[in-house]
Amino acid sequence: MGVEVRVEGLTKSFGSQLIWGDVSLTLPAGEICVMLGPSGTGKSVFLKTLIGLLKPDKGHVYIEGTDIATCSERELYDVRRLFGVLFQDGAMFGSMNLYDNVAFPLREHTKKSESDIRSIVMEKMEMVGLVGAEKKLPGEISGGMRKRAGLARALVLDPQILLVDEPDSGLDPVRTSFLNQVMIDLNEAFSPTFLIVTHDVNTARTVPDNIGMLYHRHLAMFGPREMLLSSEEPVVRQFLNAQMVGPIGMSEEKDADELAAEAGQELPPLPPIPIQQLPSSGMLRPTQREPGAWCREHGITPPPGSFATATVGAR
Ligand SMILES: Nc1ncnc2c1ncn2[C@@H]1O[C@H](COP(=O)(O)OP(=O)(O)OP(=O)(O)O)[C@@H](O)[C@H]1O
Ligand SMILES: [Mg+2]
Known about the structure:
single chain, Rossmann fold, 11 helices, binds magnesium ion
């Protein structure tokens, strides 16, 4: 089972530039969370702060009783072993073939024999659909294959927490769906806690248990998927529905003139909340809830047509 990540009052700046302030949220153990936000709002900085690669100015990140923000290097080294990370750029070693790239964390962090390493590497390569490409160099394969190789590498130490930065950037819709399915199936099988950063609205609407949104140097909202998808909060609503009308503009925030020009424009109604994507087994994941459960519990009427195709097996 994955572990909980509890973030309290986290603040990060570079010099005088505040990136985000006072961020508090909990990634519940074994659940899938997505973090959204316009480009440059500090999503990648947030991931790097969670694993202690960047030090926050203030606040805490508690993982199994250790505060990443203040612990010693030795403790950080131990806690980091709980994490698997897919960085935004893949961070592959260009001169190593995919096999050696994926094997790298095992050779660095364990004393496993080469034959044990081989069986782990091949198992993860198979999970992400890359068997047969082991000898290729990162420069010789497509962007989508590099992302999948990066995911395989993030998995070799059987992480309890998986941080995945834009797994779908530059991927076509079919490969994005494939990669989403791989992550959902992984979560069903091993229950790691997931935090996925994405710009893909469809992924955000259908994959996670919880959604967060960074905007304008703070966490605009974080909560269950159905809460954000039924929210009328302007920033959340605009982003999750990919609309042009709303407070977010091309340069993050619209200016007063732009907003005045929009005054009185009617927002389209909220679209139906889609059913959450299921694992390949067709069963609910251990932490996945029945469609509409959150709305029912909170007395929220979801937009008409929500959960229309809900035919799920119970676990
Ligand atoms: N090491 C660093 N030193 C100084 N500034 C940095 C550093 N890393 C990031 N920044 C700044 O922090 C801000 C947030 O960057 P970040 O990469 O986290 O954005 P993002 O939300 O991931 O954007 P995108 O969606 O384009 O990936 C940017 O203004 C960036 O220039
Ligand atoms: Mg980023």
